[in-house]
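User: I want to check something. If I give you two sequences, will you return the structure for each one separately, not as a complex?

Assistant: Yes, each is folded on its own. Here is the first sequence with its structure:
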Amino acid sequence: MLSSKCVFCDKAKSEIILENQQAKAFFDIHPMAKGHMLIIPKEHYQTWFDIPEKTQVQLIQLMNKAKEFLDQQYSPRGYQVFSHVGKIAGQKINHAHFHLVPVY
């Protein structure tokens, strides 16, 4: 279900770098490093644990494609992969998402 007040649900198509049937990836507007991407489900779920397993698989598949894209574009030496689950853990946007942060 789409949330009309969710910045991720309302993300402009022109900002999407990669996508598949259930997920999309785009650059973080406050990047920790060049190429910092967010991978999110297209449907609105609050946390990773709320996402149906079939959609979780699609998120993982898209994260792997995003890594390949970043490898080709920026040649990082490594990556940080993480997700904040709940406000207490630092989640600021109430739409499940993963950070894929290149390390140079």
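And separately, the second sequence with its own structure:
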Amino acid sequence: MQYFSELFASSQQMWSLILCAVLIGMSKTGLQGINTISIPLMAIAFGAKPSTGVILPMLCFADLIAVIYYRRNASWKHIVKLLPMAIVGFFVAIFVDSFVDTSDFKILIAICIFIGLLVMFWTERGAGKSEKLLRTWWYAPLFGMLGGFTTMIGNAAGPVMAVYLLSTHLPKLIFVGTNAWFFMIINYLKIPLQAFVWDNINVHSLSIGAFGIPFILIGSVIGVWLVKKLPEKGYRGFIIVMTIVSTLAMFMEF
């Protein structure tokens, strides 16, 4: 009990972390966007900005599991298009942090996700719209920027990337593999910035994250199993629904 009291200020923090860990495992192994539900829960339990330092090491561990499992399933042309502006998005987030209050970070995250949802609904309404957007010079860079920004300020780029990958109409396993590789790269790139610029990662946050490892593994197994069970059309519908739910969860915090 003393160990838990040293790690967690309250039982709410512990149970929020356990739920978050399971959802992260499920999300990283295929149920894209489901872990965004945990973002507001962790923000309530640990604080909006400090929670990012707790979640990031957990995400990095889950990313590694996902890449090992889906290592042969990825569309690298999409990853290459997204990465440069995602890195720019990191530094935009750092700049915004210099004059935006921590409590406003959740609002910024939700606005970015809401923009992505509007684009998703627009492309779903007509055949060929997503193909036309994918051929424009600004579409992938825009989502790369939004992804880098939202992942830096709140580890909440899942729905943003879901919108982009949905517009590519990739097969289910390629969708999951592309998502896994993209997030592993950007999450590991974020570690020095979170640790040395924002000072969000320390021994205490790493210890809290390590407590969640068994639950991440449980969630990973559940995620792999569910992806195998879901048909292609059903999987796409699930991702759309979870993106909407994730955005509503963020807005409900204000």
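Because they were folded independently, the notes below concern the second chain alone. The first helix runs from residue 2 to 7. The two ends are 34 Å apart (CA to CA).
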